Amino acid sequence: MKIDPAILRALSLDPAKTTLKAHGGSGFTSTAKITTTVFSSSSSSNNNNNNNNNNNNNNNNNGTTTNETNETNETKHYFLKTGRGPAAHVMFVGEHASLNAIHAAVPSLCPASLAEGLLEEGEGTFLVTVFLDMSSSGRSTGRGDEGSGMSLAQKLGKLHSTPAPVPPEGHEGNGKRVFGFPVPTCCGDTEQPNEYSESWADFYGQKRLLAVLGKSERNNGFDEGLRGLVERTVRETVPRLIGDGHLNGGDGVVPVVVHGDLWSGNRGKGVIGGVGVVEDVVFDPSSCYAHSEYELGIMQMFGGFGGAFMKEYHRIVPKTEPVGEYEDRIKLYEL
Question: What is the pTM of this model?
Fold first, then answer.
């Protein structure tokens, strides 16, 4: 398989030392493994000091220092996704930002994304990430550090207890943390708008419930009954259950980075970068800065996260007050 010049430039790869092979699979994109050989060198000093005189001063140093250069060829791997059309470009821009937002908070939870952009040859688009070796599940490579030592529940708890970054100056929020995300993201093939909002209830009602309804109407036609139900939910149920003045005794919630599409099919075990120990990992995110419990809606809707997992998670991230409405909020987030 030929590697597009845009990918080679993005990673500064030598085409003569780089190969591409189909790897893995995806419902919406083509996936492949990039393998390349890179030249690396390291210098070491050999200090041969022959000093038999304890009174030798700094001006009479008989020692000699030699530098030795160790030259090696190192094999590196990357994971590549390619797609066609504007929708694929939106998806990859969103996934690139999502992976890096999660990785910044919990580096052992997912691989970092290295590049995204338009292919030079053809009309496609690409995304390149650090390689996640899932064939190593259950065994370490014998190299690298000892790993995080954290379970998936602990990692998710750390992600959801780390406040989201403050948007750059000039964006809504005036230096405060807000709900949203720097770019649109895709949950499956559904594009999600993420314009910033200081109100979680407003963001969830407008940018999730009504936005998804709007796309459904464009694809499937208008349904008066369905629109009426969704609008009533946004008007009545959303402020009642997750209103800004209702949660945590009126203090509201702090926005955190969420995966956004976390179900059993988007979690696994693997070695990030192909070096180190096996870690619990996630992939294919659709992130935003949100209420932490928003993540739990899709997790519980599709299953795969049992009672022991949730108990361990909630030891790190307590249920939002009022606790008595926790299950109702999760049901709302399943919509």
Answer: 0.88
